[in-house]
Amino acid sequence: MSIFDTVIKGGLVVDQGAILHADVAVKEGQIAAIGADLEGEAKRTIDVHRKYVLPGIIDVHTHPVYLDDLQGTSEAAAHGGITTVIHYAYAKPGTGLMEAINQFRQDGESGSVLDFALHGGLFDPEHQAEEIPMAVAAGVTSFKMFMTYAKLKWMTDDYQLMRAFDIISQAGAMGMVHAENGLATDYLQDKYLQLGRDPKEVFVATRPAVLEAEAVNRAIAMAQVAGCPLYIVHLTASEDIEVVARAREKGYRVFGETCPQYLTLTSKEIFAQGALAKIGPPLREKRDNQALWKALAGGVIDTIASDHAPKQKTKEDDFFVAAYGSPSTETMFPVVYDAGINGGKLSLPRLVQVMCENPARIFGLYPQKGTLQVGSDADIVVVDPALTHTIEQKTQHSYANYTLYEGRTCLGKPILSMQRGEVILEKGTLHTSPGHGKFLRTDTKDSAEGFFAKKKQK
Ligand SMILES: [Zn+2]
């Protein structure tokens, strides 16, 4: 009779498209057995009757360079039931790509409380893209460029984007874009600001969804010509979805991500919360929320991630001077669970797919992460579907002095999580220390082929 380290007993296991009444046994950091009424002694038994047992949640879109550093971001994420994070290693102009990656990896290995991987973020691909093969060899295999923010000098033009995709393709890696038409937006902004209109109105009017969809389409076309798979971060609008759906019908290797804020908030927040609700791309309309939920349920959008980027600002700040971004990793799961599951937009197995399985598959971490199979890392989240709680900035763990969800009541919350078999979150308290997290090498060489081949079988 085998002796387990821990048995998670009597819960409803949600994994691989199904919900199963089963116990989960953990041994030496891995899933050792799954089944009804598992026999065998355990050092600890955790009774999870009437609770859901999910694979650890993976947040593949975080920016640990603002109010929350890498340690702080991982702590906020861990409080939200996340067990693996993929951060953007931002290489600002004048910094080498490998220099940035090495620094982020070092910060993570000394400070992260969660297992983590990295994407490259290239602000100056003209001088940084040659380092992409080196990054791939170092276990960083996805690379983001901005198609917008020309005024901030963050924008990659089409010449450099095409070149970067070409290099990414030859390196067997994955391209990523923030898709908005930067120059068109800047022209419109200059024009409308001269008219002396309300900056909030100008912000919304100068970033129409169709200019995002145009950039999505352009990036897809260029990645297709270069021959690299493409992952489009934070899709926000129904116009985007039409473009992505059309590309997927043609068999293009395109992945789509959206975020809790684009699923649950609208441009009304920009007028209610001022600069706090300044994020890029902007919050859109109710019909877009609905289209995104539908695309998630129907398989056109593959992942939900947070885009956690807490900045120092207040509601009253000058709107165009204030920074883009908001905290969102800790609130991600409860907000999506409440709106998606309790709101009847998404099935629970599909939620697990878009927050656990797909992120792991797309970035080559599966089945070590993203699933509860025998031999997988024992990264586990227990969710109490009957726990009601209200989101308030003062109980959040980000250093941000605001949350866009202040006062929102959610039903359902992660109450316990494990990383590699150790309990790291229990009843709101973290039991893990900086440096506990391990660096994970991603691998996107064949992940798109695998992902779409599996989709076809269904
Ligand atoms: Zn982002």
What features would you describe in this structure?
It is a single chain. The strands form two sheets. Strands 1, 2, 3, 4, 5, 14, 15, 16 and 17 form a nine-stranded mixed sheet that branches. Strands 6-7-8-9-10-11-12-13 form an eight-stranded parallel sheet. It has a domain at 56-371: Alpha-Beta Barrel (TIM Barrel). Helix 1 (70-79) packs across helix 2 (97-111) and helix 8 (209-226) runs parallel beside helix 9 (238-249). The radius of gyration is 21 Å and the shape is globular. The model has no long low-confidence stretch (mean pLDDT 96). The chain is built from 15 helices and 17 strands. The chain is of the alpha/beta class and 458 residues long. It binds zinc ion. Residues 61, 63, 307, 309 line the site of zinc ion (ZN).
Produce a short descriptive summary.
This protein is of the alpha/beta class and 458 residues long.
SSE diagram, text form:
Layout (H helix, E strand, L loop, with lengths): L2 E13 L2 E10 L2 E6 L5 E7 L4 E4 L1 E6 L7 H10 L2 E10 L5 H15 L3 E8 L2 H4 L3 H6 L4 E5 L11 H13 L3 E5 L3 H13 L4 H7 L3 H18 L3 E3 L5 H12 L4 E5 L1 H5 L3 H6 L12 H13 L4 E2 L24 H14 L5 H15 L17 E11 L18 E11 L2 E5 L2 E2 L16 H11 L1
Parallel strand pairs: 1-4, 1-5, 6-7, 7-8, 8-9, 9-10, 10-11, 11-12, 12-13
Antiparallel strand pairs: 1-2, 2-3, 5-14, 14-15, 15-16, 16-17
Helix pairs in contact: 1-2, 5-8, 6-7, 8-9
The site of zinc ion has 4 residues, from loops.
